[in-house]
Amino acid sequence: MRFEGLLGALFAVAVFAEMPMASAQQYPDHAVRMIVAYPPGGTLDTLSRIVAQKLSEAWSQSVLVENRPGASGNIGAAAAAHAPADGYTLHFGAQSLAVNVTVSPYAGFDPVKDFDPVILVATAQHVLMVPPDSPFKSARELIVYAKAHPGELNFASLGVDASAHLATTMFSDLAGGASNTCRRGPVRSARPF
After folding, report:
1. Where is the domain boundary, 85, 103, 121?
2. Model-wide pTM > 0.85
3. What is the C-alpha separation between 127 and 1, in angstroms, rounded?
4. Fewer CB in 10 Å around end: N or C, the chain?
């Protein structure tokens, strides 16, 4: 994770908090709801709580984190999209906001029409890993094995169409169709490639 975006967000919050408001009424004048499109305990939830705390301090108003997980972020995004457009509901999501509408027949929101981007908080990269005692010492060795042993390897994913699922599928396709040789399993029971 790169936290430059988070630091930029916190700087922006501090700057905006010090700016005089054009109207007599200060924003926010009551609690703000931050909908997190993923479950508690994960990276996005942790980041959202850091940002919510800093916003609460800067605004002297509560920013309440509400986890709305499911459907690779679609449930939380749809909840935020259908909230009143009054500035008191924030959506804290991921790149899936744009991806999901292309892979889901009905996502319940339009990422362009229903949202205004505020700031990039962080970025992340996917990493292909195997256990230390694995016989694979390179991606090529893994690909050769997967092709020779169809259906024996599993990979973990947070859900269908989540970024890890799409990245693994793309990797498999680029490796020459190895995607047919791997099964996606739930996080709790799958073992890494």
Report:
1. 103
2. no
3. 12
4. N
Whole-number Å distance between alpha carbons of 90 and 108: 17
Give the domain CATH number at 88. Answer: 3.40.190.150
Q: Which of 168, 167, 140 is nearest to 154 (CA)?
A: 168
Please identify, among 41, 75, 103, the residue that sits at the C-terminal boundary of a domain. 103
Tell me, yes or no, whether 13 and 71 share the same domain. yes
- pLDDT of 67 reads 97
65 beta partners: 34
What residue numbers bound the domain in which 173 lies? 139-186
Percent of residues, the chain, with pLDDT higher than 70: 77
Flag whether 156 is in a domain.
Answer: yes
Q: Which residues pair with 36 in a beta bridge?
A: 67, 92
Q: Residue 122: CB partners within 8 Å, gap ≥ 6?
A: 1, 2, 3, 5, 6, 47
Q: Are residues 27 and 90 in the same domain?
A: yes
Pick from 163, 168, 162, 166: nearest CA to 192: 168
Domain count, the chain: 2
| Tokens, residue 14 | 């501090």
Residue whose token pair is 């705390």: 53
What average pLDDT is seen over the chain?
Answer: 79
How would residue 7 be classed by pLDDT, with cut points 50, 70 and 90?
A: very low
- Percentage above 90 pLDDT, the chain: 35
141 and 193 Cβ atoms separated by less than 8 Å: no
